[in-house]
Amino acid sequence: MEEPLVRVSDSGRVRTLALNRPQALNSFTGAMHGELRAALDAAAGNPDVRCVVVTGTGRGFCAGQDLSDPAVAPNREAAGTTTDVGSAIERFYKPLALRIRSMPVPVVAAVNGVAAGAGASLVMTCDLAVAAPGASFIQAFSKIGLVPDAGGTWFLVKRLGLARALGCAMLGDKLSAKDAKEQGMIWDVAAEGEDCVEAAMKLAQRLAAMPTRALVETRRLLRAAASSELDAQLDAERDAQSAMGRTHDYIEGVTAFLQKRPPQFKGE
């Protein structure tokens, strides 16, 4: 039986999705896209899953697109023919980014090694990211005559600011895990000697025990804030608070606070 291109495992309420092409640093193919999308959809539809961790097997997180994949490989034999790389964005990367951004639970990236090209964009698509101390991030597109994709141009500016985004995207230099944290690309770096997947799992278990609906609504409001005026954002907060105030988790949270005990949230 062939190895799956995405390994799926559960630990309590946390589901881990591990990209599984270690011989190719988990670079994307059309087939791996299909398995990852199916795994994300399954996690989104499972009420027992309260947080998702995305990582890679082997020594890399994700090296971006596999350039030998027929979806993007240029035709060097037929003169005058070109490959529409944009079609791969439309078929694979746009749906992937939108699927992760719309997940009904928090998504954490455990960056165990290099995250290049679309792999770096995948990290930034997740809500939080924990990297191994030796992990690195690189926008490799300028080295092959392309532009950042999979949301890279959007995420880089949002996370780093325009000046640093231009430097990363145009120069294509590696960014260390430490610098990625300091510049706001990722949330944290695992301690020396600590496995980054274990560190991400601790964070995911913590998130899974929290009021999931409130976390997802907080995420939505914070994303909207960058393009909202204050009065519109105040209205959005009001509406969200009205909805959250009718949830089980709000009632449980207040009851537990008054009773001086830990709350038992259900994500409902």
Overview of this protein structure:
By secondary structure, this protein is an alpha/beta fold. The protein has two domains: 203 residues, 2-enoyl-CoA Hydratase, Chain A, domain 1 (Alpha-Beta Complex); 47 residues. It has ten helices and ten strands. The strands form two sheets. Strands 1-2-3-5-7-10 form a six-stranded mixed sheet, with helices on both faces. Strands 4-6-8-9 form a four-stranded mixed sheet. It is globular, with a radius of gyration of 20 Å. The model has no long low-confidence stretch (mean pLDDT 93).
In short:
By secondary structure, this protein is of the alpha/beta class. It is built from 10 helices and 10 strands. 40% of the residues are buried.
Structural class: alpha/beta
The low-pLDDT segments are: none
Biggest pleated-sheet summary? 6 strands, mixed
Alpha-carbon Rg, integer: 20 Å
Shape: globular
Strand/helix succession:
EEHEEHEEHEEHHEHEHHHH
Write the layout of secondary structure elements.
Blueprint lengths: L5 E6 L2 E6 L10 H15 L6 E6 L3 E3 L22 H17 L5 E5 L2 E3 L1 H8 L2 E4 L4 E3 L13 H9 L1 H10 L3 E2 H7 L4 E2 L6 H13 L3 H14 L4 H15 L3 H11 L10
Parallel strand pairs: 2-3, 3-5, 4-6, 5-7, 6-8, 7-10
Antiparallel strand pairs: 1-2, 8-9
Helix pairs in contact: 1-2, 3-4, 4-5, 8-9
Task: Quickly list its features.
single chain; 268 residues; alpha/beta; 2-enoyl-CoA Hydratase, Chain A, domain 1; 2 domains; four-stranded mixed beta sheet; 10 helices; 10 strands; 15% strand; globular
